[in-house]
Amino acid sequence: MQRRKTRQVRVGALMIGSEYPVIVQSMTNTDTKDVSTTVKQIKELEKGGCEIVRLAVYDEGCIEPLKEIRKRVNIPLVADIHYDYRLAIKSIKAGVDKVRINPGNIGDEWKVREIIKVAKDKGIAIRVGVNGGSIKEKYLDEKGHVTYKSLLAEAFDSAELFESEGFHDLIFSIKSSDVLQTIEANREFARQTDYPLHLGITESGVGTEGVVYSSVGIGTLLSEGIGDTIRVSLTGDPLQELDICWMILDALHLRQRKGIRFISCPTCARTNVNLSKVITELKEKLPPVDMNLRVAVMGCVVNGIGEGKEADIGVAYGRGKAVIFSKGKILKTVDNNEVVDVLVKTILSTFDKARTQ
User: 299-317: b or e for each residue (b if 16 or more CB lie within 10 Å)?
Assistant: First the structure.
């Protein structure tokens, strides 16, 4: 798909914009003042595929810990600031790679201008977070409600303020808990500007609800070529967010994270095995692999091979026997109770061959 053309913005060692891959982000939920725990989580997030991480800087007591965290991690750090413009300035001086401010709660324009001066001097990017939960009253509709036009009005006015100071190292996020509001606001902002956009659905929820709402909102915009960084905001362990982000990118053929992707059928009356149990066993027995592999686990031979023919390795179960195949070509027939061990050996052999080529 054709990405919307945007300007380029540097965040640490990364470049964000349409000439570069869509970047995956997350945010710590540890106390920033607890340096060791926060560093541990950041390193776990980085290992899980996070490329930029955001931390809450909620009072002045976070600044010294932030300096220490900066020394201990390599991933680009973003200071998340609400209300107090002085925390943004101190975070920039502490060495973060970007600050995220919310114009709706920072307050008077002169405070934003003070942040701009320091960011410009230090060469630090700013993410402007327009959020449906903190829109200024003047942007609300006649009934006091947030609409996509409210989000747009604050975003455009913020852009004008930054541009009046000659500052353009901006990334915008325009988010609401309402998926359609978010989609419409981002579409229109993308049509009228060339600023990179960070996509997400704010307060999307926990579990399945959060995954679905986020995937619909982020996926719709990405499919239209809109979006340069993403975060799936879920209640709970932020590591969960990363898998969903990478699945969205993979589904749209935008990026792939190295590893194994399992393809499996939904099962029906022809299925004589517990496919969920088979996949769980495979995941437990297989080590991480530094390559992209697609493994199909299909419940029957009626159309299992055909549906899994694009898989690098696959199995289609039958009554007592199963066929192991690759790219639709049958390799061998084995007993059903041998499948997991045979698949593991076949996958590891494939990985070893690719590694030595």
Answer: bbbeebbebbeebbbbbbb
